[in-house]
Amino acid sequence: MIQTNVDLQPYNTFGISCKAKRFATFSNAEELSEVLSQRNGDNLLVLGGGSNILLTQDFQGLVIKNEVVGFDIIESNEETALIESGAGEVWHDFVMRCIEEGLGGIENLSLIPGSVGASPMQNIGAYGVEIKDTFDSLKAYHIESGEVHTFNHTQCEFGYRESVFKRALKGQYIILSVRFRLSKKHTINSSYGAIEAELKAVGIENPTIKDISNAVIAIRASKLPDPREIGNAGSFFKNPVVEQEVVDAIGQRYDQFPQYPAPNNKIKLAAGWLIEQAGWKGKNFGTYGVHKNQALVLVNYGGSKGSQIYDLSEQIIQDVRTKFGITLEREVNMI
Prior knowledge:
Layout: E1 3-7, E2 19-26, H1 29-36, E3 43-47, E4 53-54, E5 59-66, E6 71-76, E7 80-86, H2 91-100, H3 118-122, E8 125-126, E9 129-130, E10 135-142, E11 148-152, H4 153-156, E12 173-183, H5 195-201, H6 209-223, E13 231-232, E14 241-242, H7 244-251, E15 259-262, E16 266-269, H8 271-277, E17 288-290, E18 298-300, H9 306-324, E19 333-334
Parallel strand pairs: 2-5, 3-5, 4-19
Antiparallel strand pairs: 1-2, 6-7, 7-12, 8-9, 10-11, 10-12, 13-18, 14-16, 15-16, 17-18
C-alpha cells in the first residue's frame, strides 16, 4: 500500500523532518515488484536504516523502505558457517545474533547504525575490520528488469567505504539479502584504536569475540551520540587517503598525528583530527553542530534543517582544505 505525503523524520537517524510525496514498504521481492509497478515514473529513494543519508529537502517521488528480514545458517562445518540475513535487519542486532551463535569476524563492527543491506553497499568498517573480510555474496533486485541477481565478492568491487553499488551500478539494484562466511575458530583483532586499552581497563587478557564486541560498544558509546537521543549519521566524512608527501608536510607542523598505512603506499589520515585542528570540534549552532566528543560527527539537536547541516559540512570541507590542502569527502549521502 502506497501512502502519500509521509514525514520521513522517523526513518532517518538524523531526525530530519522532510516529506515524501509517496511512501511504501516491502518485505520480499514480490512485494517490491508490486510497489515498483506503481512507480509511475517517480524518482525512487530506497531506505534501510536511514543511517547514512542527509535529507536536505522534501522528496518529490516514491520512497520505499526495505523490511526484508531473516537469519539463516545456510551451511556449517567445523571451522566456518555461511549465514544469510535479510537486508532489512538491523545491523547491530545481526552482529549480536552471530556472536550468540559463536560466529566470529564481525564483532569489531558492533553498534554501527544501519541495516544489513547497507553493509556491503558501503563496505562498512571499523577498528581494523571491513565487511569485505567476511562477505560471501548477496542477492539484489534489478529495478529495470525485475530480476533477482546474485553478486559474489569480486563483482561487488569493494573499496574504502565503496562498492559497485555506489559507482557503476548506483541506483540500479535493491539489495534483498546478504551472505557472510563467519568463523568458529576465532581470530581476535584487538590492535586497532582503543580496543586493547579498553580490555585492559576491565582486566581482560584473553578476550573472546563477545569481549571485543563489548569493548567496541563501550568505545563507540563514549565517543558517538545515540541517534535516538541526538540526531546524527555517525561518521559524516571519510578518512582521507593521501600521498606520503602530504603526510610529510603535516609532519613539519605537528610532532604527532594519527596515521595508518593504506594500499599502494598511501597513508590514511583521521578526518576527525583534521577537523578538530581546523577548530570545528564541539561547535554549536543552536539546533545543530559538531559533536563535542567526535569531530567526525555532525549532529541535529532538534529542529534543524538538512540544508543547514549540509552548509556546515561545506564550511568544514573548505577550512580543512585551506589548512591542510586536503579535500574531505562526505561519507553520508545527500538527498
